[in-house]
Recover the amino acids of this structure.
């Protein structure tokens, strides 16, 4: 992977974590983070799109199975109650897909994909940078409480080392 791509993917992860922090603070769970639902603005900034599966709820506790097969977290597949941590799982899958070119649990059948998700059965190719592996492995955890919180995604060494995010003038003066 080129340094240019590492910078782009790290920047996407940083901006997405920042945007989801805002959504979660407003009690919104997106539930369908994937490449097709991300847009790039005029300055290359990431914008989340398609809030069709999102939910606004005061408790942040849901049970509906929704989203995209390759991005479904274990708790949705098993029909357990879940919260905003489903979005953490999705950004882990997204990061893997951006770096490898395919989702980590993609299989020949739906049943096999479900099985691999539930076992968190993923393999990192040798070309995957160790820092990215670390980030992804901390997001793709079977237990939602063990997933890396968004604040720590923003502070993750791989993200910090590669993201050269430039905030728009309006955001720079707001701080």
């Amino acid at each position: 992977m080129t340094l240019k791509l590492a910078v782009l993917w790290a920047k996407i992860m940083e901006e997405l974590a920042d945007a989801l922090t805002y959504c979660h603070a407003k009690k919104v769970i997106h539930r369908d983070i994937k490449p097709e639902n991300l847009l790039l603005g005029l300055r290359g900034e990431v914008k989340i799109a398609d809030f069709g599966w999102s939910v606004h709820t005061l408790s942040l506790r849901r049970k509906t199975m929704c989203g995209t097969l390759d991005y479904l977290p274990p708790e949705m597949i098993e029909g357990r109650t879940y919260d905003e941590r489903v979005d953490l799982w999705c950004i882990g899958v997204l990061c893997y897909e951006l770096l490898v070119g395919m989702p980590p649990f993609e299989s020949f059948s739906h049943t096999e994909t479900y099985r691999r998700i539930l076992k968190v059965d993923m393999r990192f190719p040798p070309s995957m940078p160790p820092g990215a592996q670390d980030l992804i492995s901390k997001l793709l955890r079977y237990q939602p409480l063990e997933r890396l919180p968004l604040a720590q995604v923003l502070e993750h060494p791989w993200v910090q080392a590669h993201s050269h995010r430039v905030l728009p003038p309006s955001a720079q003066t707001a701080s």
The chain has a mean pLDDT of 88. The chain is about 45% helix and 5% strand. The beta strands are 28-29, 38-40, 46-48, 55-56. The CA atoms of residues 105 and 121 lie 7 Å apart.
